Amino acid sequence: MIGNKKLIGTTVLTALAASICCITPVLAVLAGTTGLASTFSWIEPFRPYLIGFTILVLGFAWYQKFKPKTQEEIDCECDDEKLKFINSKGFLFLITLFAGAMLAFPSYSHILYSSPGSSKQIVYVEQSNIKEIRVTIEGMTCTGCEAHIESEVNNLDGILKVNADYEAANTTVKYDETKVDLEKIETAILSTGYKIVK
């Protein structure tokens, strides 16, 4: 019989691994090391398998919780309070909630970034100074990646609009060429850890 601690540990690890490509950019921004953001993007193709494995492990843990106990298991139960909580349905429920939150992280990770237009002032720019570029970017895997790039580029003066799209693997930037140039925009994108494809 597989121990409850091993099942819980496996669940937590696989849930974290399934979303680590999206968790890393947020942690990198908080730690001030944005260059590490795309370090785990190679895990993205394995995400469906990790999600499936997490669900299987959780299902097996819940099955073990609800299956009838044998007399030997009843006689072997320990009276230690900490051990009882770790082996309780309540603790397994908390682990299930945590795993669900981690598996769903890519769908809500973008809210952890400041909204691109919230701190920008309205600026009037001559139409002839407005340029728009589209940069192909490698390594974006979710809306959190989009928000990370948009947030970093939007910190530059002269940026009018930034729209990153992980599905199309590109970022469109509208900017005032008198205040910012393509090189600064590319440097901002590269600072997030994603690669520009030329």
Would you give an account of this structure?
This protein has 198 residues and is of the alpha+beta class. The chain contains eight helices and four strands. It has helices at residues 4-31, 47-66, 71-76, 81-86, 89-103, 105-108, 143-154, 182-191; strands at 130-138, 159-165, 170-176, 195-197. The chain has a four-stranded antiparallel sheet.
Assign a percent range to the helix content: 40-55%
Order of helices and strands: HHHHHHEHEEHE
Shape assignment: elongated
CA-CA gap between termini: 54 Å
Strand order of the largest sheet: 2-3-1-4
Q: Which regions are unreliable across 5 or more consecutive residues at pLDDT < 50?
A: none
Q: How big is the Rg?
A: 23 Å
In terms of DSSP E residues, the strand content is 5-15%
Q: Find the count of extended strands (DSSP E, 2+ residues).
A: 4
Mean pLDDT: 77
The number of helical runs is 8
Structural class determined from secondary elements:
alpha+beta
Largest sheet: 4 strands, antiparallel
Could you name the key traits of this structure?
198 residues, alpha+beta, 4 strands, 51% helix
Quick take:
The protein is of the alpha+beta class and 198 residues long. It contains eight helices and four strands.
List the helices and strands and how they pair.
Blueprint lengths: L3 H28 L15 H20 L4 H6 L4 H6 L2 H15 L1 H4 L21 E9 L4 H12 L4 E7 L4 E7 L5 H10 L3 E3 L1
Antiparallel strand pairs: 1-3, 1-4, 2-3
